[in-house]
Amino acid sequence: MYRLIEQDGRAKSAEFKTVHGTIQTPVFMNVGTLAAIKGAVSTIDLNNIGTQVQLSNTYHLHLRPGDQIVKKMGGLHKFMVWDKPILTDSGGFQVFSLAKLRKIQEEGVYFSSHIDGRKIFMGPEESMQIQSNLASTIAMAFDECPPHPAERSYMIDSVERTTRWLIRCIKEMDRLNSLEDTINKKQMLFGINQGGTYADIRIEHAKRISELNLAGYAIGGLAVGESHEEMYYILEETVPYLPLNKPVYLMGVGTPANILEAVDRGVDFFDCVYPSRNGRHGHAYTGFGKLNLMNAKYQLDDRPIEEGCACPACQHYSRAYIRHLLKAKEMLGMRLLVLHNLYFYNHMMEEIREAIRNKRYKEYKKQKLENFMGGED
């Protein structure tokens, strides 16, 4: 399933074989929360800009259109017309972010829908059932996402509960994958490491879940308010205790600089809403930093967003035109910027893989980070 091709320090590049195709790592997963990338970007576009994996959200798809409907439509791949891998997160982060609307118990979480307020229950079994209905390539275990900061005693109890829930997820996925009407009987499960910024709790949890021999492992509960330095420290301390022969996924991260630093600490998988969200607000990622195309200085700028970029926006349109579209609130402006940003992320991951495989990752990272300093923010 996971074949390590090259290591350069702790940075690693591999191939991860799935029922929906082989993923080259390190990889950035484009976030399509509701089975679509916000910004009017289609799965045809995603193919054209080099996307390997698309990520969708269990909680949101359970609420609408409903996972049973997706199953009746043949699963998420058929529903959204995408034949490459899909990872579904467990819904845990969304459930626990609804702090005022939920109640945690050992069996799971009772909470209220953010759409209509109706009462919903989700536990490990329910999360696995929803993700099985969606028929994603990779399902994430249902975990508790503790608040930041959290007291040490709370964190210990939370992590222990997450471990108990993970074991229930494994049992339920094994059961679901054996059923005759399950669409993807080869659905894989990733466990999630938690522990906040307590390195010793993280390490012990990493050791414990590594014994369960899962398809992959994620590091959750970061990028939730701690400093970049704290995040990098936790990665340095924790990743060595996760299996080298399995993918490591840093959830919800991040900026291009975050990705470069995390790759250097052994991370394979990333996802983040930044490229699409920032694109919809006029921000473009480039090799020399981030640009805000809403700025007046681009009003008569006939250059592409980035010289030499092969994305659809840069191949045809000027900064001035895209700025005009954004100012006029034309959807095309947002679409072009989202396409550019996703292409930038996907292309950067290609460069990262090449640098690792050529044993020059440290040099590549240093040069990239220096170049990023030239942006506007």
Automatic annotation (TrEMBL):
Ligand binding (Zn(2+)): 309, 311, 314, 340
Similarity field: Belongs to the queuine tRNA-ribosyltransferase family.
SUPFAM superfamilies referenced in this protein's UniProt entry, alphabetically: tRNA-guanine transglycosylase (SSF51713)
Cofactor(s) needed: Zn(2+)
E.C. number(s) listed in UniProt: 2.4.2.29
Organism: Herbinix luporum
Active site, UniProt feature: 89, 271
Name by which UniProt lists this protein: Queuine tRNA-ribosyltransferase
Residues covered by the tRNA-guanine(15) transglycosylase-like domain: 10-371
One example of a Gene Ontology biological process annotation: tRNA queuosine(34) biosynthetic process
Cellular component annotations (GO), alphabetically ordered: cytosol
Annotated region described as RNA binding, given as residue ranges: 252-258
The keyword Transferase is annotated on this UniProt entry: yes
Protein keywords: Glycosyltransferase, Metal-binding, Queuosine biosynthesis, Transferase, tRNA processing, Zinc
InterPro entries linked to this entry: ArchSynthase1/Queuine_TRR, TGT, TGT-like_sf, tRNA_ribo_trans-like
Cofactor-binding details, from the entry: Binds 1 zinc ion per subunit.
Pfam families the UniProt entry points to: TGT
Residues reported in the UniProt entry to bind substrate: 89-93, 143, 194, 221
UniProt function note: Catalyzes the base-exchange of a guanine (G) residue with the queuine precursor 7-aminomethyl-7-deazaguanine (PreQ1) at position 34 (anticodon wobble position) in tRNAs with GU(N) anticodons (tRNA-Asp, -Asn, -His and -Tyr). Catalysis occurs through a double-displacement mechanism. The nucleophile active site attacks the C1' of nucleotide 34 to detach the guanine base from the RNA, forming a covalent enzyme-RNA intermediate. The proton acceptor active site deprotonates the incoming PreQ1, allowing a nucleophilic attack on the C1' of the ribose to form the product.
Pathway membership: tRNA modification; tRNA-queuosine biosynthesis
Assembly and binders: Homodimer. Within each dimer, one monomer is responsible for RNA recognition and catalysis, while the other monomer binds to the replacement base PreQ1.
Recorded catalytic activity of this chain's protein: 7-aminomethyl-7-carbaguanine + guanosine(34) in tRNA = 7-aminomethyl-7-carbaguanosine(34) in tRNA + guanine
GO molecular function, one term: tRNA-guanosine(34) queuine transglycosylase activity
